[in-house]
Amino acid sequence: MFLKGNRVSLRALEPSDADMLYRWENDQKLWNVSFTQIPFSQFVLEEFVNTAYQDIYTNKQLRLMVNNLADGKTIGMIDLFEFEPQHARCGLGIYIHEDFRKNGCAFECIELIKQYCFSVLHLKQIFAHVNSSNAASLALFEKSGFEKSGLKKSWHKTGLNNYEDVWFLQLINEN
């Protein structure tokens, strides 16, 4: 266990996570929020889990798994990406399985990762990109203190000739 809250804990990837990552990364319903267009093979994900050196300074990203403290089940994942130590910032992405949404788990995950980003990594800011149609994610990030700082118009292609706006949200560490 890496970070622990009241409902969830965040932990490093384990080899046993490969099957779950395979299901989640290849779920096409999630591709519109992860900006993915291709499936991942089981082999690639097993290699990622088994050989991934989880050093955010080397990889410029960090993936953590979210565990439900009540039963120990893995219910999601949280990613830090585009880590820029020179500019003291990184992006944040989160996925919570639909069976565990709307009960405060995602909010608690963000609170835990904010503490890590600001107290351990000494970042000045965390940012997120959220599709304008994703009202639940927008509400979650705003509840967590993020502010809309820009609208990227027609940023995300959703079909042959269809595009969606994407909000750029930031959380600035004022300490």
CATH fold topology: Aminopeptidase
Structural class call reads alpha+beta
Listing every helix as H and every strand as E from the N terminus to the C terminus, the arrangement reads EEHHHHEEEHEHEE
Q: What is the level 1 CATH name?
A: Alpha Beta
Count of helical regions: 6
Gyration radius over CA: 16 Å
Shape: globular
Strand arrangement, major sheet = 1-2-3-4-5-6-8-7
What does the largest sheet look like? 8 strands, mixed
Q: Give the distance, in angstroms, between the N- and C-terminal Cα atoms.
A: 27 Å
Poorly predicted tracts of residues: none
Using the 3D structure, state the CATH architecture: 3-Layer(aba) Sandwich
Overall pLDDT: 88
In helices, the fraction of residues equals 25-40%
Can you count the beta strands?
A: 8
Number of domains: 1
Structure report:
The structure is a single chain. By secondary structure, the chain is an alpha+beta fold. It has a single domain (3-129), classed as Gcn5-related N-acetyltransferase (GNAT) (Aminopeptidase, 3-Layer(aba) Sandwich). Helices cover 29% and strands 34% of the residues. The chain is built from 6 helices and 8 strands. The chain has helices at 18-25, 31-34, 42-51, 56-59, 105-120, 135-143, and strands spanning 3-4, 8-11, 62-68, 74-84, 89-96, 125-131, 147-157, 163-172. Helix 1 packs across helix 3. The longest helix has 16 residues, at 105-120. It is globular and about 40 Å long.
